[in-house]
Amino acid sequence: MADRQAPLIGRVAIVGIGLIGSSLARAIARAGLAREIAIADRDPAALARAEALGLGTSYYATAAGAAEGADLVIACVPVGACGPVADEIAPVLSATAIVSDVGSVKGSVIRQMAPLLPNPRRLVPAHPVAGTEHSGPDAGFAELFDNRWCILTPPEDAEADAVETVAALWKGCGANVEVMTSDHHDLVLAITSHLPHLIAYNIVGTAADLEQVTQSEVIKFSAGGFRDFTRIAASDPTMWRDVFLHNKDAVLEVLGRFSEDLAALQRAIRWGDGEQLFDVFTRTRAIRRGIIEAGQDTASPDFGRRPAVDAAPAAVEPPVTAKAS
Questions:
Q1: Whole-angstrom Cα distance, residue 220 to residue 140?
Q2: 78 vs 29: CA distance, rounded Å
Q3: In terms of DSSP H, where are the helices of the chain?
Q4: End-to-end alpha-carbon separation of the chain, Å?
Q5: How far is Cα 286 from Cα 226, in angstroms, rounded to an integer?
Q6: 167 vs 176: CA distance, rounded Å
Q7: Rg of the Cα trace of the chain?
Q8: Which of 105, 179, 215, 309 pairs as cysteine with 246 (C-beta 3.0–4.6 A)?
């Protein structure tokens, strides 16, 4: 957890108060990183709920309202909405205002936002690699970014102080920060995030479509693997629609490689090649161990997505009293 510190930013505007936006507001408040947290959301119910939860210091129905006078504006919206947000806030941005985002695709964000901003050199795209399948202001929690990675993909000509400020913000929120090019980010995330989500959506859909298996059986007899797929497939459909439309080249490249590897496994099963199957399963098991050792997940059933204090209490078995012999 980050230590509370003197404010890094005067006014930060968070546009979109879903899981990431509400978690960011909580994390910023927890560490005292900003004097003002201006929140904007076009959904009146979400905005009212954010105010009821006390997530910000001011609330706006428009992105421009929150961005006026802001030192940093963070678009916490689906990737496809970043361009419209940039267009709306551009007229009210100061010459020194920094603009960032939290999207899972970075090349598209730069192409959408940079041409619309008064100073594109102060655009610092960011991607906190953290989340859950839940959405909305109530889904957020300040610990979401603790010891998770946040990837920054500033354009080559980005102003150094803007990059440093965004990096300091995410570090203050508990995240580890890495900087890379947007193209490299989009390829890395295509294999580590986008393709797994595509597979999850597909396999859950396949299970639902099987005529020989009823929906009640899918729910009743779901094993651990399928349950994990359903958790991933429960993610925000608008967000993931935009991810695949805006990162299609990298996703299709990785999907082609995946299809080749899947065909090899299919052949191994067909011809009873147990040695090949064992070798593949052994190599992939090591990846899981590496993720846990790197502190990016836990072996616990909730995958470390919420701190223990927020989890439902486990059932306690009554004590067993030993009988005298």
A1: 29
A2: 23
A3: 19-31, 44-53, 63-67, 82-89, 107-113, 160-172, 182-189, 195-209, 215-220, 224-233, 237-246, 248-270, 274-293
A4: 52
A5: 21
A6: 9
A7: 22
A8: 105
Task: Label the pairing between strands 58-60 and 126-128.
Answer: unpaired
* Strands 34-40 and 98-101, bridge-based pairing: unpaired
- The pairing of beta strand 149-152 with beta strand 126-128: antiparallel
Q: How many residues does the chain have?
A: 325
Tokens of 190: 């295509």
C-alpha dihedral (13, 18, 24, 28), degrees to nearest 10: 60
Instruction: Assess contact for 12 and 37: CB atoms under 8 A.
Output: yes
CA pair distance 171, 141, nearest whole angstrom: 16
Q: Write out the chain's pLDDT in tens, 325 residues.
A: 444 556 899 999 999 999 999 999 999 999 999 999 999 999 999 999 999 999 999 999 999 999 999 999 999 999 999 999 999 999 999 999 999 999 999 999 999 999 999 999 999 999 999 988 788 999 999 999 999 999 999 999 999 999 999 999 999 999 999 999 999 999 999 988 888 888 888 888 887 777 566 666 766 666 667 777 787 788 788 888 998 999 899 899 999 988 998 899 999 999 999 999 899 888 887 777 777 777 776 665 444 444 433 433 333 333 333 333 2
Two tokens, residue 6 = 């003197």
The pTM for the full model equals 0.78
Residue carrying structure tokens 């006390």: 54
